[in-house]
Amino acid sequence: MDFLDPMLSGFAVVFAPLNLLYVLVGVVIGMVIGVLPGLGPVATIALLLPVTYEIPAESAVILLAGIYYGAMYGGTITSVLLRLPGEAATVVTTIDGYQMARQGRAGSALGISAVGSFIGATFSIVAMTLVAPLLARFSLGFGPPEYAVLAALGIVLVASLGTSSTAKSLVAAAFGLLLATMGPDPLVATPRFTFGSVQLADGVDFVALAMGLFGLGEVLYHLERRARGRSRRVPVANAWPSRQDWRASRGAIGRGSVVGFLIGLLPGGGGVLASMAAYALEKRRSRHPERFGRGAIEGVAAPEAANNAAATSTFVPLLTLGIPTNPVMALIFGALLLQGIPPGPRLITDNPEVFWGVVDSMYVGNIFLLILSVPLVGLFVRLVSVRETVLAPIVVMIIMLGVYTVNNSTFDMLVVIVFGVIGYLMKKTGFEPGPLVLAFVLGSILETAFRQSMRIFDGNVAGFLGRPIAGPLLVAGALVLVAPALLRAARGWVRGRGRVKGHGSGGRPEPASGSHEAEPPASAGRSSDSPADRSAPAAPRLPAD
Amino acid sequence: MSSPGVDEDVAEEEAAARAGGAGHLAACVVPVLVGAGGLAYALTLRLGIPVDAGPGLWPAAVSVVLVGAGLWALVAGRRVRDVERFSRGALDIALGLASLVAHALLVPLVGFEIPTLLVLAFWLRVLGREPWRVTALVSLLTTAVFSLVLVVLLGVPLPRLAF
Which distant-in-sequence residues (6+ apart) come within 8 Å of A19 by Cβ? Predict the structure, then answer.
């Protein structure tokens, strides 16, 4: 319990008036961009990177963290009322949330979402408070081989889990690694890929890359496919769950919180995967799975608790190991580096005000969000009517002038345009920019750690397997990668045997038990012919969050 | 910012058309070429051996991975229609990009205020087809807010008008 004192002093950091303001500003911005479809937390955090350069490190991460978990709350509102998920992690909520709204139960859906989100996030913060110091202490003994394996696994798992095409995500990740090699060699300082340019002598600027890929790329992509139409009227003004709603969904909230916390710890994990897993779990264990897709309140409560729990626990690997596990964490990693604070196991001892300030700010931020999201639903919903044609130019100018402010360089403005074009082309061609940015951030860590490891192992790559931590990590990572293929093969084999038996006995073969319930919700909606399921959203193309 | 609050039928009309096999081929060949270029450049640097790697070894390894992943995407994704066709809206993108390049080049010459105002007006009126009143109001207000926040409050040394 020797972490109690620094943890309590973290509250002193949070309750400093300016930091309280940053928490509030962060969660409000998060809710707003969560409500606005398309402009997600990744793009917004990328846009705000230059601002964080001007403020203390703890305030910067408090602000960015607030945007991330605030977006989870905001995204729910439009998912339930308009079937427009403002944030990828709330796509699953549209399935039952929108059905509830159509049945006149929008208030219940929004209320239980807010309460579930609060409970999921708070559970995750408490668990993080207990787990993170232990993990940080454990990882103090990590050497270059462990960091090389962690960084490599982080990149590979993010590219293979939670993205639509593993091959294309690996392409993006490899491109990110190649971009990270621009500038001086980390060990011998020989310039690489600078083409004689003074501006490229230190490599590509992270802020310009992130703002271009996520910010400008997003704007350009939507500029081409801009839709015009009239705004809808939204009838709900406020929301609070009834006692009956609470009784029906408290179990789902509890399970969603645990699932979300665990998935958030994994590379590639985050709100998107957590919400899908929690939904699938609830549907699978329900005695009436047919209710799902037709307005089951558990189908709203579980994913909402899960995505908020995951949004919190995803900070654990970043703050304790220095390994970002998704693009948002990669941006926050970059923000800390901009401040000269390398995230990692020493953060908790060397910069306790940053570590505990951020963790404790989440307690306060979630209380703010609960207060904001229940009575002010009607106000946030009005934001949906802000026209994209008005918002896009403002965002573009934030990008152009924002990137200038980091190094006072017009060259960075041109770099951001180049990466904006690359981001746009990637979206058009099915490549996700998330793995690229993650690999770019982890590239120099990976290269340095790998080359140092090679010196330790005398050039023998098999040396990784002999390390007590790196070896099992490698094996576990490999298992995670091949497990889905093995499971598919095993299921196919079981079904094949079932068919053979069915033909042999002359009876009709039974489907594999539980296979339907285990399907992800979106595909369940696709395959069903029920009216409720037909109105469920199409299978989401999931960005890594 | 995908179509906030629009009717479903309109949004569905806007769904991007999928490109054919040529689009997929182009999308996957580009990373292969970039990887090959990276490899060619890395080979001009000292490679060394794993225990004493030169500056070129890591970029060479990464380039090989990029080429391999690109080829995998080319083969594995040939049945996946996730490449979108370029529509007439791409012209708007070209115009928008040209305005941003002009903005980047003009800011150090004439200060940030006029280029910012003009680019905002261009995006609002020409690309967004907003009414003149909205164009004038939003571009003037946004430029004023940037001046206030960046120059007055944060003290960022942005290039300013001479007067």
Answer: A13, A58, A59, A62, A357, A361
- Residue B135's pLDDT is what? 94
B83 CB neighbours in chain A (<8 A) are 428-430
Q: What is the pLDDT of residues A49-79, one digit of tens each?
A: 888 877 888 899 899 999 888 887 877 887 7
Chain A hits for B27, CB-CB cut-off 8 Å, are 429-431
Q: Residue A507: its pLDDT value, please?
A: 39
The C-alpha of A305 sits at a distance from chain B's nearest C-alpha, in angstroms, of 25
| Residue A340 contacts B where some CB pair is shorter than 8 Å | no
d(CA A40, CA A89) in angstroms, rounded, equals 10
The answer to whether residue B78 neighbours chain A at the CB level (below 8 Å) is no
Residue scoring higher pLDDT (A344 or B17): A344
Enumerate the H helices of A322-467 as residue ranges.
Answer: 327-338, 347-350, 352-373, 377-382, 388-407, 410-428, 433-456
The predicted pLDDT at position A226 comes to 62
ipTM for the predicted complex comes to 0.89
3-state class (DSSP) for residue A184: strand
By the CB < 8 Å criterion, does A452 face chain B?
A: no
Question: How do beta strands B48-49 and A191-192 pair?
Answer: unpaired
> CB-CB: which of B69, B92, B104 is closest to A413?
B104
A249-272 average pLDDT score: 86
Nearest to B128 among A227, A389, A541 (CB): A389
Give me the mean pLDDT over the A269-275 stretch.
Answer: 78
Residue A512 has pLDDT above 80, yes or no: no
Confidence check: pLDDT of A227 > 50: no
Contact A38 B23 (CB under 8 A): no
Nearest Cβ partner for A223 among B13, B27, B127: B127
pLDDT digits (tens, 9 = 90+) for B72-117: 999 887 776 778 888 877 888 999 999 999 999 999 889 899 999 9
Contact present, A354 and A61 (Cβ < 8 Å): yes
State the smallest CA–CA distance between residue A493 and chain B in angstroms.
Answer: 23
Report how far residue A111's alpha carbon sits from residue A239's, in angstroms, rounded to the nearest whole number: 5
Tell me: pLDDT of A524 over 60. no
Where in A183-252 does DSSP place strands (E)? 183-184, 191-192
Q: Which of residues 95-154 of B touch A (CB under 8 A)?
A: 96-97, 100-101, 103-105, 107-108, 112, 116, 119-120, 123-124, 127-130, 134, 138-139, 142, 146, 150, 154
The answer to whether A533 and A524 have CB atoms below 8 angstroms apart is yes
- List A residues 385-404 in contact with B (Cβ-Cβ < 8 A): 385-397, 400-401, 404
Are B83 and B24 a contacting pair, CB within 8 Å? Answer: yes
Q: What is the pLDDT of residues A128-186, one digit of tens each?
A: 998 888 888 888 888 899 889 988 888 887 777 656 788 898 999 999 999 999 999 98
| Three-state DSSP class for residue A515 | coil
To the nearest whole Å, the CA of B102 is away from the closest chain A CA by 10
Closest approach of B5 to chain A, Cα-based (Å): 5
What is the per-residue pLDDT for B133? 94
Report in angstroms the alpha-carbon separations of A86 from A89, A315, B66.
9, 22, 33
Q: Is the dihedral of CA A198, A200, A202, A205 positive or negative?
A: positive
The verdict on a CB contact (< 8 Å) between B82 and A430 is: yes
Please tell me the total number of residues recorded for chain B in this structure: 163
Instruction: Tell the burial category of B94 from Cβ atoms under 10 Å away from its Cβ (0-12, 13-18, 19+).
Output: exposed
pLDDT value at A525 more than 70: no
Q: How far apart are CA A37 and CA B5, in angstroms?
A: 9
